[in-house]
Sequence to fold (357 residues):
Amino acid sequence: MIFIVSSNCLLVKIERADIIFLMVTLKNLRQQISTVAASVEEQLPQINETTRCEELRVHLLGRKGEVTQLFKLLGKLPPQDRPIAGQLLNELKKKVTAALACRLTALGSAPQQSQSKTERIDITLPGTYHPHGHFHPLSQVQQKIEEIFLRMGFTVAVGPEIETEYYNFEALNIPAHHPAREEWDSFYIDETHLLRTHTSPVQIRIMEERKPPLRIICPGRCYRRDNQDATHSPVFHQVEMLWVEKQLSLANLKYIIELFVKEFFGKRYQMRFSADFFPFTEPSIQVHIRPPYSTDWLEIMGAGMVDPIVLQEVGYDPDQVTGFAFGLGIERMAMLRYKIDDIRLFFQNDLRFLHQF
Fold:
């Protein structure tokens, strides 16, 4: 004797000879559908939490839910009864789904209605002002410098902040044990790599890649082992200018610097030159300005004609082309432009200071 047991009690026992088996009938399926529908109508009004409502949904419509199990019995019905049974089961599923959604909406709207009574928004009140941010003063100064030289026909070039000794020193006519290296106490990463001490290495890299005529400015961060005080910082920003072409002279350099100073500081600033020494320029000069509010001369940059040795290092012919360059500190220019006497203010992120620019 063989027994087939169903937990839904939808099977009718039929005896044939000495074998007993069970068959699903449409009548019993209708009864079970009615039972499920009545159970839903009875339980839903008693549910007051969305979590309980979700539990009932899983119990009915989940992978092992009661309604889902009823769908699995369709294949056991006689073929002529399956369309009617399928229609009845689909209607049950739609009713259960709609009833659950309606109850969830009611449970969700209750706290919203309560909240709307206590938190009304007066749309006639003015909005809250949220001020826009703005560029850091150092970024503003760098953009101003770039804008001036872009109008003169220069292009902006950048290079890596981690440099080799070759690009940072040797290619700029600063060989090993050269006294000029003592001016830069460098941050070495390993025996041959360091954080660049100036942006001049960018000039070498660009000249290796391009042929004259060449007009570039090279802004960027630099690093030196300076003790931080009112005028020094171990991290600072520079802008290098380089122009290489035929028949350039120191007079051309002076003219470019005069144009820049007038554009950046204004016509009331006075300017003068004095002799100096840099390994990568010959002759070398310093540029000083005197603001209208002061009697003191202040250095703003070092400059000079590119040393022929540097031109030869990158494959240029010093007999055919000449060039000039200068380097200035962005922090220094910002301090002079805005009359700031302490470089540390730029890096303290004090909003009272930054909001002034």
Q: What stands out?
A: The chain is about 40% helix and 20% strand. Confidence is low (pLDDT under 50) at residues 1-22. The chain has two domains: 11-118, 137-354. The longest strand covers residues 235-245.
